[in-house]
Structure formats: structure tokens, C-alpha cells
């Protein structure tokens, strides 16, 4: 089996030397265990069972596991989630790591459970061309909302327009983020699906309508900070605008996953949900794919095909 190990904690942005590729012999599976082989990898790999001494996971079944950046691993099954039994044959299984998997569910639960988004409301989403963000915008369109998205390249902005976003802009090239947010929705935002944090969030909060709602999903602009950011805290804006802000992780609604995934596959098959992926070929390229994600190279979910 091959595996990628973190040899040194990142000091700022990750570097090639922070990762090491190892090769090791795995033990034969014991009773109740299965041997997994990676097919697509991301931070939440999707594997197929190649040897099984566990009747719940016959050879050839497909599962999502959290076994790390590994080509093979042995599992007793407790950390495995089987892919839906009736997964349509014309839908790529890699989407189980993206729009029809954890990132897609994150988008759905953020919208339905946290924001309670209603028809005709105006929604803002950042990192909008990413795995979570693009699904957020598409679900908001399905719900009859006005959607504004920001992303870090002109190609991403063009893709968002293709997906039906009402307004989209490149936050790296607009002369003023504040003006761009105002121009896209002069009426203000009812809802904000927050993936980025930091400066973006400081500028976006004053653009909310009174009683606006904010779902805090991620803070990717701060993940490589050597020291945690301190302020400015948006307390005054929160008070004056009487905003409601809630952080969440998608596993809070895990019990709803089977029904939610069915709904999302339905939207996919009706053509209401488009799924683009950013696929890197080869297990050896895992660190490069990961660093590319942090640089913003991906449109849609970033996966590695093993
Ligand atoms: P993406 O596919 O969106 O990839 C990350 C994107 O973030 C990049 O493509 C880049 O796009 C953008 N980005 C990177 N650095 C910065 C920066 N400094 N400032 C602004 N944008 C940046 O990743 P995911 O969809 O998987 O994740 C999106 C967010 O959701 C993350 O914050 C993640 O941690 C969070 N998340 C939370 C979950 C939960 O349960 N709460 C579950 C899953 C994800 P661009 O070119 O636009 O800059």
C-alpha cells in the first residue's frame, strides 16, 4: 500500500517537503475486516472493497471512508459509509465525494436547516465556484432566489453565470469589494453562506439586510494563518442590523442523508443541478492537488483519480 504522510506541520502555505510518500505491507484482513482500494481520493476518500471477511461489505462494494491519503487500507467497517445501493449507473461515483456527497449535503443543510432560505430572497455565497459554493448557488436558484456569487478568477465567474447565478464577480480584480457587493444587490442580502471569513466577511456583513441570516460554513482565507486573526469583530454590525449568525457542520443532520442524497440525485437527473469536477490523475499527485485547492485552482469539487 502507498500512503502520504504529513512529516511537518505547515508553516504558512503547505510545501512539497511537508509530505512524504511511503510504501508498506498491509496485514491480511481478519474476520470482520475488509481490504479497501482507493478509486477516487479527496480529504474524504472513496474506496472499493477488494477483499472481505465482513458480510456487510462484499467484494466489489463501494464505500466512503476516512482512512487518509492511502491507496489501500484495512478496516473493520465501523468507519465506512456504503454508497447508496440504487446509485444510478449513469452518474459518476466520484460525485459521491462532491455534489452528491458531503460537500453537496453541506450546501443543502446550510440552506435549508441553518438559513431557512425562502423564495425571492437574495443570497450571497463566496468561494462560489468550489465544491460547496456552486451547489449552494444552484439550490438557491431551484428555490427561486436571487443568487450572487464571488470567486477568484474570470473563468470561475463565467462558470457561475453558466450555472444561472444572477450576479457573479471576481473578488481578486474588482476595484472595491464593498462596491461589488453593493452593485450586485443594491437591495442588500437576506442570507449569506459564508465559506471564506477574514476580510471578505468584514466587508460583507454591513451589506446584509436588517434581520439577515448568516450560515458560517468555512473560513478558508484564515486556515494557513500562522497566528489566529484578532478582529475587527463585527459586533456593531451584528447589533445594528440585528443579524443572526450560526456556525454548523454538516454531520448534525446525518440522519437525513439518505433522503437528501435521493433529492439531489433527482435534481441532477432533471438537469437542475450541474456537477463539474476538477480531477487530478495519480495518487502521486495528492499533495499537488491539495495545494492547488488552497491556491484556488479548482472549479467544482477537487478529486484525485487513483
Ligand atoms: P472549495 O472547492 O471551495 O475550494 C476552496 C476554494 O476556496 C478555492 O478554490 C478558492 O477559490 C477559495 N479560496 C482559497 N483561499 C482563499 C482565500 N484566501 N480567500 C478567499 N477564497 C479562497 O472547497 P470546499 O467547497 O470543499 O469548501 C468550502 C468551504 O466550506 C471551506 O471553508 C471548507 O472548510 C468548508 N466546509 C465546511 C463544512 C462544514 O460542515 N461546515 C463541510 C465542507 C466544507 P477562489 O478561486 O474563489 O478563491
TrEMBL record:
Entry-linked InterPro entries: ADH-like_C, ADH_N_2, ER, GroES-like_sf, MDR_fam, NAD(P)-bd_dom_sf, PTGR1
Record note on quaternary structure: Monomer or homodimer.
**Which EC number applies?**
1.3.1.48, 1.3.1.74
One annotated GO molecular function is:
15-oxoprostaglandin 13-reductase [NAD(P)+] activity
Q: Which Gene3D superfamilies match?
A: Medium-chain alcohol dehydrogenases, catalytic domain (3.90.180.10), NAD(P)-binding Rossmann-like Domain (3.40.50.720)
One cellular-component annotation, GO: cytoplasm
Q: What is its main location?
A: cytoplasm
- Keyword set, alphabetical order: Acetylation, Cytoplasm, Fatty acid metabolism, Hydroxylation, Lipid metabolism, NADP, Oxidoreductase, Phosphoprotein, Prostaglandin metabolism
Q: Which organism is it from?
A: Xiphophorus couchianus
Q: Which GO terms describe its biological process?
A: prostaglandin metabolic process
Q: What is this protein called?
A: Prostaglandin reductase 1
Q: For the Enoyl reductase (ER) domain, which residue ranges apply?
A: 17-304
Which family does the similarity line name? Belongs to the NADP-dependent oxidoreductase L4BD family.
* Reaction it catalyzes: dodecanal + NADP(+) = (2E)-dodecenal + NADPH + H(+); (5S,12S)-dihydroxy-(6E,10E,12E,14Z)-eicosatetraenoate + NADP(+) = 12-oxo-(5S)-hydroxy-(6E,8E,10E,14Z)-eicosatetraenoate + NADPH + H(+); 13,14-dihydro-15-oxo-PGF2alpha + NADP(+) = 15-oxoprostaglandin F2alpha + NADPH + H(+); 13,14-dihydro-15-oxo-prostaglandin E1 + NADP(+) = 15-oxoprostaglandin E1 + NADPH + H(+)
Q: Where in the cell is it found?
A: Cytoplasm
Question: What's a Pfam family in this record?
Answer: ADH_N_2
Classification of source organism: Eukaryota, Metazoa, Chordata, Craniata, Vertebrata
Amino acid at each position: 500500500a502507498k500512503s502520504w504522510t504529513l512529516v511537518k506541520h505547515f508553516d504558512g502555505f503547505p510545501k512539497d517537503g511537508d509530505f512524504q510518500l511511503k510504501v508498506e505491507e498491509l496485514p491480511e484482513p481478519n474476520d470482520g475486516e475488509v481490504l479497501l482500494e482507493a478509486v477516487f481520493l479527496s480529504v474524504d476518500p472513496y474506496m472499493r472493497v477488494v477483499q472481505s471477511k465482513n458480510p456487510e461489505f462484499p467484494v466489489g462494494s463501494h464505500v466512503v471512508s476516512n482512512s487518509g491519503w492511502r491507496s489501500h487500507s484495512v478496516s473493520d467497517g465501523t468507519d465506512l459509509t456504503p454508497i447508496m445501493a440504487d446509485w444510478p449507473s449513469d452518474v459518476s461515483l466520484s460525485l459521491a465525494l462532491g455534489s452528491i456527497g458531503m460537500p453537496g449535503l453541506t450546501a443543502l443543510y446550510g440552506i435549508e436547516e441553518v438559513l431557512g432560505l425562502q423564495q425571492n430572497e437574495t443570497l450571497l455565497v463566496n468561494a462560489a465556484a468550489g465544491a460547496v459554493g456552486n451547489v449552494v448557488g444552484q439550490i438557491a436558484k431551484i428555490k427561486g432566489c436571487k443568487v450572487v456569487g464571488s470567486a477568484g478568477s474570470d473563468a470561475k465567474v463565467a462558470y457561475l453565470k453558466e450555472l444561472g447565478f444572477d450576479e457573479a464577480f471576481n473578488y481578486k480584480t474588482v476595484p472595491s469589494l464593498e462596491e461589488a457587493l453593493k452593485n450586485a444587490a443594491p437591495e442588500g442580502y437576506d442570507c449569506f453562506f459564508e465559506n471564506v471569513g477574514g476580510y471578505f466577511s468584514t466587508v460583507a456583513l454591513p451589506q446584509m439586510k436588517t434581520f439577515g441570516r448568516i450560515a458560517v460554513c468555512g473560513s478558508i482565507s484564515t486556515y494557513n494563518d500562522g497566528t489566529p486573526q484578532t478582529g475587527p469583530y463585527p459586533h456593531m454590525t451584528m447589533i445594528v442590523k440585528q443579524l443572526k449568525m450560526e456556525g454548523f457542520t454538516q454531520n448534525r443532520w446525518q440522519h437525513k442523508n439518505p433522503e437528501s442524497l435521493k433529492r439531489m440525485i433527482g435534481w441532477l437527473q432533471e438537469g437542475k443541478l450541474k456537477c463539474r469536477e476538477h480531477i487530478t490523475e495519480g495518487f502521486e499527485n495528492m499533495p499537488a492537488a491539495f495545494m492547488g485547492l488552497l491556491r484556488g485552482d479548482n472549479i467544482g469539487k477537487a478529486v484525485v483519480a487513483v
